[in-house]
Amino acid sequence: MIVAFTSLSQYWNFSWRQLWFFSYISLVGVVANLLALDLPYVAPLLLGNTAFLVILLRLGPLWGVASLLLVSQPFWGTFYMWLSFAEFSLILLGWRLGFQQIKLLFLLCWGVLTPIIMLLYGVWWQMSWPQVVLCTAVLTSTGALNLLGARLILNVAVSFNQQRHQRLGEQLAGRVTVFSAAPALLLISAALHVFVGMDLAKHHNELTRVEERFSAHSSLQLHLYRDVLQQLA
Description:
mainly alpha
């Protein structure tokens, strides 16, 4: 549940602590979306969207909208920008309606978005249905991972009032977790880039070898045909 980490009375407050938390989480979200991979090469793994969910659920909708605009910059003007806007709006709606559990927020948000995504992929972009199902599964799974990631960060990124009731060791562990989670996410994204790049290089080498064999075989056949024609002439 996330109700313990939010407060309606603090929506319009400003502090340097809030600005630092907003800047750090949003910057990591931007970098993560810049490194977003297309899996399976048509549906991006938008793990950076975790950032605006964390900001929304911790600091409120104004900070959340600002984070959404920043995190969406890497794919601004695309379908995935509108998908992120819809995800933000549905999560905010569900939370304001009293859906305090992550699974309820997920069911509300992606229960609405999943059929819309399938229709757009299948009808508007006329993709094959196996590919539609695969791409939709990637986006839906990413949405689930974003909500789980937001919950984990909120579990350790407690408020200042909550920190006063914690032991020093617990405060230190929470801060280490928050500040190490973001670099870990970027390292995972970078590792995925490396693995996908290696896989693409492998396929490129295989295609190059096939092309060379085909070229050699075609050249040999052309020489044979030319010799036959010369003999017939």
